[in-house]
Amino acid sequence: MPSGPERVAQMDPSEFIDLLKKFVESKNYNLDEVSIRRIISSLYFSLFNFWANRKYFLENKRRKGPKQDRFSFIEFVEEMISNALDAEIKLLHTYRIAADHYALNPTIIKHEGRAEEFFGIREEVKIDESALKKAIESAEEILKVLLEE
Amino acid sequence: MMTANNQSTDFTDQGMDSMSQRPYMLYDGNLSVQVQTKLNITSAESIRIKERISRDTLDIPGALGKLDKKALAEVASLVSIPELSGLLKMLVKKYPWLGHPVLSVAHDPDTSEPVFIEITFPRGSWEEWRRVVKEVKKEMRKAGLDNLAAKVAITCLQGLRE
């Protein structure tokens, strides 16, 4: 495995996101829910992996795990918020949780942490083509900022 | 200076200046340091924080949601209460159609540490949500409120659901 900038470049999801976008935009496919769920999840993780590699190799950050390379989702979310990507990361993060952890569709997301903090805030989400379109838009915006850093 | 609908919404406007003249230190820097080392604050301290936020956000009923005393202390440990109050006021004044905001605190699931505060509005389309965040955060940076911008997320539930 290469290290440093070469490794970071290896994890750049530009091509992957572009490929997914073209696939989704082509009218040759009627995407079923399984496909939409997997695409949303993969968009999120392609960005997360890229961000974590940037942290590790370019910023020399160390976190958990034997190789100190396990970064937390919340740190990723926090950094996106500080870059004014509140809407994009919130949407991608929430739908990723729905896609990977919830059986029903539509469903209601309950975030980890003490439930009482989220009383009154029911995050109802529906995994469909509209969500997928927003997820792709969000991924593109987030990637743009990551590449500018 | 940020303007919209011919109304000044500068974070350092009359309201904020007058607020900062009040004895905020107990609830601002000093308390922030205090609660980081002593999250099991007393009920009296919790009530004081709640009262202070409530007083500053009287025109925003329900903004505190059902935050318990620990969550209130966490809010104070993450951001300056006067700045947060100023932001809430500005958001409600400039974007009244988004509805009444509710505060919550997001935690790191591994460490349970508070990470950022979320201001959630019931309304606001996907496009509007993105535009509002960009506008507000740009102005926050201009006003020198970098920490607040980094520690507060704005969410529009309608945009998330639609």
Protein described:
The complex is a heterodimer of chains A (149) and B (162). Chain A is mostly helical and 149 residues long. Chain A has one domain. Helices cover 60% and strands 4% of the residues of chain A. Chain A has 6 helices and 2 strands. In chain A, α2 runs antiparallel to α6, α4 runs antiparallel to α5 and α5 packs across α6. The longest helix of chain A is centred in the N-terminal third of the chain and has 26 residues. Chain A is globular, with a radius of gyration of 16 Å. Chain A starts with a helix and ends with a helix. About 5% of the residues of chain A have low confidence. By secondary structure, chain B is α+β, with helices and mostly antiparallel strands. Chain B has one domain. In chain B, the strands form 2 sheets. In chain B, strands 3-4-5 form a 3-stranded mixed β-sheet. In chain B, β3 and β4 form a beta hairpin. In chain B, α2 packs across α4 and α3 packs across α4. Chain B is globular and about 40 Å long. Chain B starts with a strand and ends with a helix. The N terminus of chain B is likely disordered. The interface between A and B is large, with 34 and 38 residues.
Characteristic terms for this protein:
heterodimer, A: mainly alpha, 6 helices, 4% strand, globular, B: 162 residues, alpha+beta, three-stranded mixed sheet
Question: How many domain modules of chain B?
Answer: 1
Rg measurement of chain B, Å: 15 Å
Q: Largest interface here, residues on each chain? A: A-B, 34 and 38 residues
Separation, N- and C-terminal Cα atoms of chain B: 33 Å
Instruction: Give the class of chain A from helix and strand content and strand pairing.
Output: mainly alpha
Q: What is the count of DSSP helices of chain A, taking H or I runs of 4+ residues?
A: 6
N-to-C span of chain A: 23 Å
Task: Give the percentage of residues in beta strands of chain B.
Answer: 5-15%
Strand fraction of chain A equals: under 5%
Mean pLDDT of chain B, to the nearest integer, reads 73
- The oligomeric state is heterodimer
Structural category of chain B is alpha+beta
Q: Identify low-pLDDT runs of chain B.
A: 1-38
Number of helices of chain B: 8
| Main sheet: strands, sense, barrel of chain B | 3 strands, mixed
